[in-house]
Each structure stands twice: as structure tokens, then as C-alpha cells.
Known about the structure:
By secondary structure, the protein is an alpha/beta fold. It has 2 domains: 29-115, 3-Layer(aba) Sandwich (Rossmann fold); 139-262, NAD(P)-binding Rossmann-like Domain (Rossmann fold, 3-Layer(aba) Sandwich), CATH 3.40.50. The chain contains 10 helices and 11 strands. It is globular, with a radius of gyration of 19 Å. Residues 140, 163-166, 168-170, 187-191, 194, 207-210, 228-230, 241, 261-262, 265 line the site of NADPH dihydro-nicotinamide-adenine-dinucleotide phosphate (NDP).
Amino acid sequence: MAQIIDGKAISQAIKDEVKAAVEKLNKDGIEIALAVIQVGDDPASAVYVNNKKKACAYVGIRSLAYELPEKTSEEELLALVQKLNEDPSCNGILVQLPLPSHIREDVIINAIAPSKDVDGFHPANVGSMLIGQPGFLSCTPAGIIQLLKRSNISIAGKECVVIGRSNIVGKPMAALLLRENGTVTVCHSKTQNLKEVCKRADILVVAIGKPKMITADYVKEGAVVIDVGIHRMDNKKLCGDVDYDSVFPICSAITPVPGGVGPMTIAMLMYNCVLSGKENSAI
Ligand code: NDP
């Protein structure tokens, strides 16, 4: 019977650890504040932003909300980021993606001070992660490493296959699995024989963005399957990139959707905020 990796419980444990760390910092006279910037009124972004604000309230981090109109120019957004970069009372800056098409995401991400880039998207933090130096780790992949470690699943020496090579999930995931001494293969839309490559995996991380695409045919008996995908189906229920019912009987452990990887992203964001409060000048 496969182990269901409980992202809700593990993310709760991390948030409670963060809450205790924030209380300790507060006692030392250090307050943590996260600026959350949303441009436009995309309903999915509004839900994510709201969840981040709720998590901040839970762990004791002050959230500074900036809800800007859709027509905000790139220059105006850059000016706000610059102001927050220089504001010593603001520890972290999060710009909710996607941005409206007239604003270049890479220009905005590059403008955030690396020491406040709690999403871990700035090239300086991505580079630090690759060469094993201190910095902020991208929240979703860092959360997946925590899910594995806290479920007593060892990574060292394992065949790890990541499907997807996006900058926010696939690439940093591969780098973090490598850092944990996994033997890592990255697949993408041009990969040949995807099923065969996936069947080599002891740990299969799926971030492909296609609902229920990964069936039992892609999974080795006894593999650990991590489903990053999140999709709303016609019946309003959520599903992942993995066909859970097909894969569950043959894997040794699996993350459900919802309640697997999803809650970890925000928990790791809270963790990064505490890190920024402790080491703002060192990162
Ligand atoms: P992207 O669309 O940016 O990347 C998808 C990747 O999958 C690309 O690298 C693409 O390859 C690859 N791919 C697409 N089709 C195939 C195929 N048929 N065979 C092999 N590879 C393929 O998605 P993200 O990385 O941003 O997100 C992935 C999923 O994770 C989404 O469902 C998203 O909603 C979810 N997500 C969940 C988060 C959470 O907190 N739980 C956080 C972030 C994302 P190529 O590069 O060649 O195009």
C-alpha cells in the first residue's frame, strides 16, 4: 500500500517552526515584513495572494499588500520595487506572477534586491543555489525536498527523473536533487522515449502542466511519485499532472492533489521570510 505523502501536515509543521522562530525574533526586537505586490485582478492570483497573506498572519509576519491596477506601467512597478528595496522595514518582496503582458517579468525579477527575493527567482539566488552558496531557494522545489526528507525518503544515490524544465520548478528541482546527491535526469517536450526514461526513476517529479498525463505506464513499481501539477477540472475538483488512481497501486509513495506539493510552496515562502529577517545583510 503506497504511503500518501501528507503535504498539509508537513507544511503545517514547517509553519509552526517558522512561527516559533518569528516569536523569538520579535523578542529580540526584530519584526519581519513581506511586501506582496499584485498587478491586475486575475482571480487565480488573487487567491494565491490571499493565501500568502493568511500564512503571514498565522506565523506573525507583517504583510504589506500592494494591489495595483492592471494598467500599471513597468516603470511604476520598478519604482515601487526600488522603494521597497531601500526600505529597511521590508524584509521580503514578492511580485505575484504572471504579470500583465506589457510588463516584462524578467526585468521586474532582476530589479528585486537578491537579499529580499524570498521567491528565489533572482539570477543571483539561482546561481548561488547551483554552486551551493547561501541564498533563497525557489519555494516549490525546496518544499519538495522537505516533503521527501520529512517522509524519510532518502535521495542520495537514487535515480531521480524530473519532467519539466521551467525556471520556477523543473530546473531548480533538478539542481536541488543533485545537491542531495541524487542521480538526476531532466525531461521536457523534446525528450525521446519519455515512458522509458520515467520508468528508470526511483523518484519521479512531475511538473509538466498537463492534467493526469502520467499514468502507471510511466512509473516503475515501488517508485516515489511527486506531483507538482495543479488543475481545476470541469467538475470543479482539483487534479494533478499524475493520474493518481492509475499510479497509486504501483508506487511506494505519492503526493495527492490537493494536499501534497501545493501547501509546501507557501510554507517555504514563510521560511524564506524568516531567513531574510535573520540574514538580510549576509545573503
Ligand atoms: P511550464 O508550463 O512552465 O513547464 C512545463 C514543462 O513541461 C516544460 O519544461 C515542458 O517542456 C514540459 N512538457 C510539456 N509537455 C511535455 C510532454 N508532452 N512531454 C515532456 N515534457 C513536457 O510549467 P511549470 O513548471 O510552471 O508548472 C508545472 C505544473 O506545476 C503546472 O501544472 C503548474 O500549475 C504546477 N505548479 C504548481 C505549483 C505548486 O505550488 N504546487 C507551483 C508552480 C507550478 P519544454 O520546456 O520543452 O516546453
